[in-house]
């Protein structure tokens, strides 16, 4: 469905044109940054790399290196598992076992329903996108079906938020759940084709999902929809759906101006359902048990369950299925066991394009609106704890260094402003004083906030605003 790079200028937009990072290459993701004191030599290797790696999805053993095979601890804290039942039992990687455990029943039930009734079930569940913005999934499915034409499904498996590894676990240990979910969504919107866009930093996931697709194809299951797997090339902005579509079309991975939206004109101009792995993988349970049952697992204002990824700074890191709406404090102190050394400095939820929550904000419910009110976000569900061996200036430098390196370059404030902010705080960390004042800071952040076309620049601005809100004294001490 289009994997070759047709635009020669697109080559510079990727970190890993020729496949996964080499074995032993150290990760520079923020989860590894938080734990850099645990392995200073490995962190030095990560910072010395000419093309840094963000991120390997091994945040539970950070600081990590490519090729490590440690599996995360898996726990279910919701009333019952929606997503982790097979994974908690050790994983299911062959079709016969998947079907023997009840896999496929939801697909059969979905195909006995009209597309309209199936979509209404997803609407009733209150399921929101689990990869970032949290757009209601049912509304997205309905809009793609209403667009008519020849719709296509694009599975966003480019899980790029540092700190998140939930999609990696689903792909590696329950691949047929995703295949079944694609079959359900295809029936709902009338699609005959789907493509999985996989993060190239996940080579084992690629091998497993590739083998699962071949086995399913030989069994003509799920039937009615042809599923293709394609690998990304290392670009954080491809987590944004229109950048991902451009990448699939062999063009530069830059955000598209909207409208038109992908549900109307997406991949090669076709109506396109772009959904991430976790969102789709909730569909079989919802179809089997009903939308109301899924809604009841969460809070009144925030239905359902969510996978969260706890980094190695927690005493009990790993992958956890939680009910939406529980206090962040329960995640940090009870489920995660608190930080393994020192005191908690802050918690980053949903990656660097969200915010940093101080300890005093831990009673905030884990819900979209509640977290937004305190300068945070649900995002992909990565939860990175920082202990007090991380100071605010070094964290700001690392976030904006990441932001500058991953900018697609389309927006000048994002391309230039992030690099200027990163450089200023790097010099501050090196001992130079008076490198940036509050006026310069305010101007650069306002430009990112007001003129960035996509969530990359705007998200970095949200990170900055959260610091202003949650760490005013510490930030003021950094500005002249």
Can you describe this structure?
With 480 residues, the protein is α/β, with parallel strands linked by helices. Among the domains are: 74-295, NADH-ubiquinone oxidoreductase 51kDa subunit (Rossmann fold); 298-387, Ubiquitin-like (UB roll), CATH 3.10.20.600. Helices cover 42% and strands 11% of the residues. The chain is built from 21 helices and 10 strands. It has helices at 30-34, 40-48, 85-88, 95-100, 105-111, 115-125, 137-147, 166-173, 175-189, 203-218, 241-248, 277-281, 283-289, 291-296, 328-335, 368-373, 392-406, 412-429, 438-451, 455-470, 472-478; strands at residues 74-76, 152-157, 193-198, 226-231, 272-276, 305-310, 318-323, 344-349, 355-357, 382-387. A 6-stranded mixed sheet has the order 1-7-6-10-8-9. A hairpin with a 7-residue loop joins strand 6 and strand 7 (318-323). It is globular, with a radius of gyration of 21 Å.
Short description:
The protein is of the alpha/beta class and 480 residues long. Helix content is 42%, strand content 11%.
Features:
single chain; 6-stranded mixed beta sheet; Rossmann fold; 480 residues; Ubiquitin-like (UB roll); 4-stranded parallel beta sheet
